[in-house]
Design a protein that fits this description.
Blueprint lengths: L1 E8 L2 E8 L7 E7 L10 H9 L3 E5 L13 H6 L1 H21 L3 E11 L1 H12 L5 E5 L5 H14 L8 H6 L18 E6 L7 H13 L6 E6 L8 H14 L1
Parallel strand pairs: 3-4, 3-5, 5-6, 6-7, 7-8
Antiparallel strand pairs: 1-2, 2-4
Helix pairs in contact: 3-4
């Protein structure tokens, strides 16, 4: 039977999903991240399907989201979007360490994945942590600087003011920007899924990254899936492909 356990790890609320018959085993583990203005519970389908296939799954809530959502307005969530992404990236080692101390994870078989903001998060994690084995990025962008400037322009056009220096904040994203250093992927398995009609995170970002990886001779382990009609919403086919990719590569 698949178990869903709500717990707090290092003050981070997560859903922990696993097969109860293997509850105490060191299992391959997937950290899967939700999208902007969403929450961990909406991604339980991924956790269930992956746990059926023998993986341990951790669904965290990002800062300002889910159980970590305080009095922040929609505007504040938008203004601090990249702080939320960086928070996810910086918190990952804490989650891994805590689970390893409990003897629950196979440290040689760790993966990250996510949709939209979760995919953006996952790209940054792959740029930061060589110990991650697999990544699944659904409707995201690895082009941190370019996308950050586009988002900032959109926020400014709505009359919102930033309580910080935008250029300085964007410059701070450089270490997480996989597009600027694609060789950091180091031929690790990566699945990229994107809908061509995406009106939130442009499809061009995924296409451009794949082309860059091809140019660097690093596309052998990359699965690039394109949905010709999808907007900013993962399809059933995309979800099942992501689960199958993680099962195969992890």
């Amino acid at each position: 039977m698949i178990q869903v356990e709500h717990k707090w790890i290092k003050e981070i609320p997560v859903l922990h999903i696993f097969d109860e018959t293997r509850a105490s085993e060191q299992l391959p583990t997937v950290f899967f991240y939700h999208g902007f203005q969403s929450q961990k519970e909406l991604y339980l389908s991924y956790g269930y399907l992956l746990a059926q296939r023998g993986m341990r799954v951790i669904l965290p809530d990002a800062a300002m989201h889910g159980e970590r959502h305080g009095a922040e307005s929609d505007t504040e969530q938008a203004i601090y979007f990249w702080d939320t992404v960086r928070g996810n990236i910086d918190e990952l080692p804490q989650l891994v360490e805590a689970l390893n101390e409990e003897g629950l994870v196979d440290m040689s078989r760790l993966a990250v994945g996510g949709f939209s903001m979760g995919a953006i998060t996952s790209y940054g994690m792959l740029a930061q942590y060589e110990w991650l084995k697999v990544g699944v990025c659904l409707a995201g962008s690895s082009y941190y600087e370019h996308f950050a400037r586009a988002l900032a322009d959109g926020v400014a056009k709505q009359g919102m003011e930033f309580p910080y220096d935008v250029d300085e904040r964007i410059n701070e994203l450089a270490p997480y920007d996989l597009s600027a250093q694609p060789t950091k992927l180091k031929n690790r398995p990566l699945m990229i899924w994107h809908g061509k009609e995406d009106d939130v995170v442009p499809f061009a970002y995924s296409e451009k990254l794949y082309e860059a990886l091809v140019e660097e001779d690093m596309s052998d382990n990359v699965a690039f899936m394109v949905d010709e009609k999808a907007k900013h919403k993962i399809t059933i086919e995309g979800m099942l492909a992501a689960v199958g990719f993680l099962e195969e590569k992890l």
